[in-house]
Structure formats: structure tokens, C-alpha cells
Design brief:
By secondary structure, the protein is an alpha+beta fold. It is built from twelve helices and 35 strands. The strands form six sheets. The chain has a six-stranded antiparallel barrel with strand order 1-2-3-6-5-4. A six-stranded antiparallel β-barrel has the order 12-14-15-18-17-16.
Amino acid sequence: MPVARLKYFSLLLAAFILIFSIPIHADDNTTIFPLKDVKPGMKGVVYTIFTGDEIEKVDLVVLGVIENALGPKQDIILVQLLGEKAEHTGVVAGMSGSPVYFDGKLAGALSLKLGAFTKEAIGGVTPIANMLSVIDASQTAPADSKAAAKNSGDIKLPARVPLPQNFATQVMRTNVGGGEFLVPIETPLIATGVYPETMAQFSKDLAGWGMSMVAGGTAAASPDDARLKPGDMVGVELMRGDLTVTPGCTVTVVQADGKVLACGHPIFSFGSVSMPMARGHVITTLASSLASTKIMSTGGTIGTFSQDRITAIGGQLGAEPPMIPVEVTLVTPVQEKKFHFEVIESPQLTPTLVALATYNGIVGSTAYGEGFTLQLDGEIQIKDHTAVTLNGLFAPSDMPVPSGFFVASSVQGDFARIYSNPYEVPHVSGIRIRVTAVPERRSATIENAWIEKNELTPGETVSVKVQLRPYRGPSFIQEMPVTIPAQAARGNLQLVISDAETVNRTVESAAASSQGQLSGLEELIKLMNRDRENDRLYATLLQPTATLLVEDKIMPNAPTSEISVMNHRQNNGAVRVSNQSTAGEWSVEMHQVISGERTLSLTVR
């Protein structure tokens, strides 16, 4: 046989050996290597990807088994990866979920690593039996997975697992410091279309979930995306569209019916979830003495993750779950930019994701600068309820914080109030945000206020003069006509000249602080939509008579007899009493952020 032909057949044979040495999928008859048979010194292999979609085999050796490491009967197999690549990169972020085999039998998934700055690639393996229990959980999950996700977030992976004393001599050479701990392998949070400034502002929020945000990419969807094998990469799509945010890890099991297990540890520990599953591709593996990581891109959506448990995330290939459509528009004097994307619905994550997208849209405009005042308008659409109105004016401050961050925080706060309500699980159907950038720092502080006369009669109108000082400008006087209502109490009253925050705090403090006493989510939304606007100057007339607050309704100057009747009702949890009433409220639009307050005393005869 010619040498060239012999060489060809040799390469072909090697390729077949490599292909068939990698498990294509694990069905219900997958051979499992039992934990009880794992012994120190045993040799095995782990399958993972370092570049592209090529699954590679890495040798390993068992150091021992740590019993009850993550909880009762939650053992961990301690292993050391061998070979040139493992020595170069160590245990890599994104490697969690990489399947581990002994004698061709599936033993579990690489899921933990030993500290930082380690000299050798030492990691922890979640036993496969503990991972398969996640599939059982998915078959008995509640019908309303979103409700379950709200109430099942109490399962948390320990931040670190201490090594038993008998392992100390084996790992002392790793020089990890005063104590040796196994920690979950970091999950790379792949972001595309996200500016570095946005990453810097929000990476701390996401780091609390064990995420390290890194720039990545997207790849065109392919029919081959759903042909997963153990060792392939998958992503959990938190946001997709003009910008994407996707944590990624490695597939451990793909059953014949399309059920998938990955990661070997939780992504967020939310329990039952509903998150899109996407194909992941490794662009390259970045080696670092601190924390090596896989740089990924995400492909097509291929299914749904329904479980996020202590030993794995689990899901099903096929249909994808619904997501929330979001539109963010930034308007500047020279251009208008629109961003369209979708986010998952999660009480824990949606507020942060929408805030991130809002901030990203603001800083992404070349026409926007820190000298601009930002006007927020928009709404949060909630199924079967009134939409939550978003509004506010945000001027630059002297603090080293961009004004765009205050806009994002305001949006995040409104979402948090909706999702933390004690009445029902809200279902957001759409989000629309519009931010208009206006040149100049538009803000003013109340310096003084006075009235022409202090003794008035019901029906009489008095001119209130308010002295305001704008940012780096001369003071000016704003007049407000105030008419004493006919039903105002006689005697000494207070006229509070203030910003919106003061009115919200004093006038509706009892209602705002008693959300649990409202009759439902709709009443909470009405209360939120009644918040005053911070670009207006307010005058509020307060009188020393009781106010009755029934659900979201405010009944000022309530008679004692009515209060007594309401207090004696059996179900009076939605009734509150405040010791002062609002006799009247007036405001003037100022087109700038107003701050401060002054209180004037007057007498009604």
C-alpha cells in the first residue's frame, strides 16, 4: 500500500476512534459509575471544550470523596486534572458541568474548583446520581413555574466547601492561604451589545450570583444547535435582542427524550424556573493565574430550562418559554435611538436586567453627555392590571455617579415594588422606556417662601412667593396662587412648600408604608401611579384633623364617628388612620428638578 494511502487510512482510523470515544448522548440506559466505587488514585477523564465546538478529553485522578460536602448525602468527588492544557489553564470558568467518566461510565460533572492562584487544577465533581434527581424534580414541578420560582429561592449553594483534615497534605502544595476551600466554578456571563461602562456599573450586582461578566458574541442559529452532546456548551438567555446577557456552562447529560442536565451546580438557586436554553460556542479559553475563563458566543434558542437546583440545572430541548418584550428609546437634540430586546420574567433578575438595558441605552449615545438632564417616561404593562407609569427628571449631581445610573435605579425600584408585592405573582407583558436628554443641568433648590398675609378665610386666595436658586444661576421668585378650600378646618394650619419627595413622604406615608394592608396589586399600582413628579413645585395645606386611609383611597378630615365605625369592623386590616389631613394641594411645573422644603404657618378664621 502506498505510503500516502496508508497515512490517509491512519488519519481516518484516528478520527473514528476520537469520534466514538466521546459519548454522543446519555439516555435512560446510560451506564452510571456508582459513587461507592470511587476510590483515591482512580484514573478517569473529563470532556470539555477549549476552543470552538471541539470536545476534548482531559485525564484526571481521584484524590478522594468528601462526604456531605453540600448537605446531607450531597457528596463531592475531589479530583486533579492532568495534562498540558489543564496545567496551563487550571479549572476554567464555564467548565462546570463537564462530564466525568471512569471506565467509560458516567460518574458526574466537574462543578467546583479549589480556591484561586492554585498551582494545580484541583476540582470537585458532583455525583451523577445527585444530578439525576433534578430530572425527577422537573417531572413533579408545580404547574405555575413562575410562582414556584418566587417561593423556592431558599436553596443556596454554599459559597465554599471546607476540605477535611485528611486532604490537607494533598492540597497544601496549592498555596491557597490559611484555609483550603472548594468553591463553585465561576459561570461566565456573556454580554453582547453591552458597553464597558455598563459592565462596570452592574457587574457588582451580578457578581453576587457567582457571575463574572465578560464580553462575548452571538452566532447565527443553526439546525445543528439542538444536537447537543455531553461536553457541549449551553447558555441561559436572560436577555436577547439588540443586547444579550447569557450565562454559560457545560452539558453533562442529554437523554433520548431531550432532557438536559448541565453545570453540576445552580446558576441562581431559584428552584423551578422558566428560562430559554441556547446553544453555546467557545471562541477561546483565556488562561489566567487568578481565574481562567471561556470566552463564548451564543447560537440559537433550543429549549427551556425548568430547574435550577443545588446539583444541576435541568431542562428540555424543544419549545422555548415566553419572554418580556422591551423597548428603550433615547432621544437627544440630534438623534433618536431605539433598542428592542426581550428579558426573562424573574422577580429576582428582571429589575436588574431592565435597569442595565436602560443605562446601556443612555451611555450608548454619542450625543449624550454628563451635562445633560434626563427625562424618563414609560410604562410597565402588567397582565390584567393597570400599567405602572414611569416618569421623572434626573439632573447631574456633584457625586461621582452618572445621571443615567439614577434613571436606571428609578426603573429598577419600580420593578422591585411590583415584584415584592404580597398579593399575587405579577405577569409583566411589556415594557416601554423613553429617556429624553436635555442640555444643561436643570435643578433648583427652595431657599425661602412667604405669603402676603397669615390670616385667611375659606375661599380666599393668597399669593405664595417661593425663592429658588438654580444650579450656578441667580435666584428667582416663583409665585403660586393658593385658594383656601371651603371645607378647610378653622384654626392654625401649615402650608408646606416642597419638592415631590416631601409630599409623597408626608401626605401618603401611611398608605405607602402599609402595602400589605391594601386589598391587592391593582391598589398598589394606583398608589404608585399617584406619586408626585419631581419637576414640579408643590404647596400642601395640612390641617390637624384625622385622615382615613381605606386601601388606596385617602379620605381627609374624617369625622370621629366614621373612624369609630371602621375600627370596629371585623376585617379592618385595610383601614389606617393618620393624625393629619390634606386640606388642599397645588403645584406648578418647573421643568427642572426641585429639592427642599419650607413650612409656613397660617390661621383660617
